[in-house]
Amino acid sequence: MKAYDRDVFLRGMGILLGFGTVFAVIAVTLMLLVYLPMAAFLSPLASFSSYTDTPLITSASPDGTYNLTAYLRQGNATVADTMHVHDAEDTCIYWEYGQKESSIVWLSEDVVQINGVTLDLSSGEVYDRGD
Questions:
Q1: pTM over 0.70
Q2: Do 90 and 121 belong to one domain?
């Protein structure tokens, strides 16, 4: 009698596992049908590539070694404007959150003052207010 009970139990478990597999397949299928189209629709909305950088000013060092360009990235309802300055290699050397204007003054061939912040470009100094 015990062997019979065991076989009935194992067959019953096989049926339950079979239903579990069917439910899992249905759940995965529904997830693919619902989630993937939503993700494809929402991902462009969450992308930061919609921000545009507007060039403000371009300035060259007195000897022409360095060329800097200041950009304004306009924020939106939840993010303030930012101003960043890049060199000719497109390396960001200055980044300031919540700023809309830029002033670039060369103090020497290698030293520049951007909005009151002095940077020695020959030593690789950068200013990142976002840190």
A1: no
A2: yes
